[in-house]
Amino acid sequence: MNDSSRRTFLRGAGVLGAGAAMSALPTLGAPAASATFGHHGPDADDGRFTLAVLPDTQYLFDADRGDPAPLDATLRYVTGGDENIVFLAHLGDLTENGQPGEFDQISRSFQHLDRRRFPYSTLAGNHDIKSSTDDQRGRTPYLDAFGPQRQRGSRTFRGASPDGYNSHHVFRAGGREWLLLALDWRPSAGGLEWARSVLARNPRLPAILTIHELVWADEAGQAQLSEFGQKVWDELIAGNDQIFLTLNGHYWPPGRAVKQNKAGHDVHLHIANYQDRYYGGSAMIRLYRFDLARNMIDVRTFSPWLAEQAPRLNELQRQEIERTGAADYFSMEIDFERRFAAFAPVPVPPARPAGRQVIRGTVAYWRFEGQDGAPVSGVRDLSGRGNDLVRVTVPGSPEETLRFSAEFSGRQPSRSSLRFEGGKKPARGAYLRTADSAPMNAETFSRGYTVEAFVKLPADFKDGKHSWAALFGRQGSGGKAGKTGDDPGEPAATLSLSDGAAFQWAVFPVNQNGISTCWGHELALEEWLHVAAVNDGRRTTLYVDGCPVLRNPETPAAGIANPGGSWLIGAYAYDSIVEQAFHGWLGDVRVVGRALEPREFMLG
Q1: Above 50 in pLDDT, residue 482?
Q2: What CA–CA distance (Å, rounded) separates 98 from 116?
Q3: Which residues of 83-97 are buried (b: 16+ CB within 10 A; e: fewer)?
Q4: What pLDDT score was predicted for residue 375?
Q5: Burial class for 345, CB neighbours closer than 10 Å (0-12, 13-18, 19+)
Q6: How far, in Å, CA of 62 to CA of 68, rounded?
Q7: What is the C-alpha to C-alpha distance for residues 425 and 1, in angstroms, rounded to an integer?
Q8: Which residues contact 599 (CB under 8 A, 6 or more apart)?
């Protein structure tokens, strides 16, 4: 089909000119009053979770000039359950003068967490102890109040250095474990060696370092290492690839920087401190919202104490509810799997037996197993029903345009794929088709069907040379099946990809004269996806990664018209003529003669 005729069809369908939807972070309003929160334990397996960070609270606990109310409100918010907060880390300077009475006050506030066994860490800042000392200073009011003995009931506490001033914690979130180091105001050489030993004993855990002093920032929010911070970088951070994020207080204003470690990987260095703000910072917290699916950490900074009083606040107080500058409200993109691959590679489960994929009603099941880079001559149907595939090369195309690949989706049953290198103008590439004698060539699927596959598109898919390439379809046209509606030259069935990399399942059903079309959304490139077209004999639903797309038709559509041709894998045929071969990777493909529920997909 030429581009003008396809554009005519698409214009009639109302899809030309539709731009890609831009995703954005949700608008963050003021949090609700803490009195509305119920206590819920965090969900350790949810890929979206939050680390709460609490910097210097010293002015709230300053002899007779303090006020615990802001901190009490913050700790109530942390245990409220709405943010899936999995851990709270204090960055030091809990108190102003390090006196027993001040620690008595803040200790009472932290009992809110103790009673709920909510996991947290603390560390000593220079105001909590004698600032000229390191972690060999001996007993202090800080150690009496917040030493290792306080963490006996904690489910995340894993131990402290012999002096008691450095600790480490392991919390579970996003389905994995994370290590958090809480280091003293001035860890000694022995303290830094202890921290290195903790990392060595936990070699597969991504690590977050909390310490009172590491970086400081200029008024533009650009952070840089302090003199002591440089020492910590050189002796602890740079050579330990596990540390991907550092958090410290002490200085103000807040800021951040990214620095590469010895492995050449990014380490995010952040400073947060609000003691110079209204009411000693109003016990502001920094929320690090991890989203493992998006490979993002969204950061927000606000005061729950001020937020719950919002209707009664004056102008000065209202502007302190939330900090929205670039140093306090931002997002960080981290490819977690790639960043952690050197020390915590994601285990790849073994291939699932092919026989388990041949479920009730399976018509054909193809998995593409061969030596990486080897050309493909044919593929056997593992359902045992004889729907084997043979290779067809577009004239003039080299043999390597269709070959086996070692790449695969971790969710697919097999552990390999096919690499198609097709295109158009002129048509090039290679594809697979069922043999003339294949039983499924006669199928009309009038009682329902499911067609599913794994697919990955290369970075150059949207260069204009691959639009409407097809993954799966019938070779014959709607016209050859006796259909006269819409464009009879269109294939009787095709699972194609638009120029914007959106799935389209277009089919001439047995029971109607025109095309029934399901439309997907624009897809990410260089990522494995699962697609399934499911018909229950009445209507068709298109799924991407097990989720139904929006533009599924309500009009009744049963079966697939049969023009008498073969089924094609990796080719688009207009008016029965192959115009181009697919461009990308294709994993397992399965056709079932009934409607599957998403739980039955090959996604497992």
Answers
A1: yes
A2: 26
A3: bbbbbbbbbbbbbbe
A4: 96
A5: exposed
A6: 10
A7: 12
A8: none
315 Cα distance to chain centroid: 39
Q: What angle do CA 351, 356, 357 make, to 5 degrees?
A: 85
Q: Per the structure block, which two tokens stand in for 442?
A: 């006669």
Please report the DSSP string for 265-305 in residue order.
-EEEEEE---TTSGGGGTT-EEEEEEETTTTEEEEEEE-HH
Q: Alpha-carbon Rg of the chain, whole angstroms?
A: 30
Q: What is the DSSP letter of 150?
A: G
| Residue 142, number of CB atoms within 10 A of its CB | 27
Q: Identify the H or E element spanning 418.
A: strand 417-421
| Token pair for 486 | 């819409």
CA atoms of 378 and 371, how far apart (whole Å): 13
Which of 21-35, 537-551, 575-589 is least confident?
21-35
In the chain, the percentage of residues whose pLDDT exceeds 70 is: 93
Best CA proximity match to 286, nearest among 318, 258, 245, 315: 245
Which residue do the tokens 């097809």 mark? 470
> Cα separations (Å) of 256 from 119, 142, 246, 382?
26, 28, 10, 55
CA dihedral 456, 458, 461, 466 (to 10 degrees): -70
From the number of C-beta atoms within 10 Å of its C-beta (0-12, 13-18, 19+), residue 65 rates as exposed
Separation CA 274–CA 281 (nearest Å): 5
Residues 450, 363 contacting (CB under 8 angstroms): no
CA–CA gap between residue 363 and residue 505 (Å, rounded): 19
- Letter for the amino acid at 38? G
Per the confidence metrics, is the pTM higher than 0.90?
A: no
Integer Cα distance of 320 and 583 in angstroms: 53
Q: Tell me the C-alpha distance between 264 and 244, whole Å.
A: 12
Q: Are 94 and 61 in contact (CB under 8 A)?
A: yes
Whether residue 12 is predicted with pLDDT greater than 90 in this model: the reply is no
Q: Can you tell me the mean pLDDT for 335-340?
A: 96
Please list the alpha-helical segments (H only) found in 165-226. Answer: 189-201
List of residues 6+ apart from 146 with CB closer than 8 A:
94, 103, 107, 110, 122, 124
**Cα separation of 516 and 209, whole Å?**
56
Residue 587, classed as helix, strand or coil, is strand
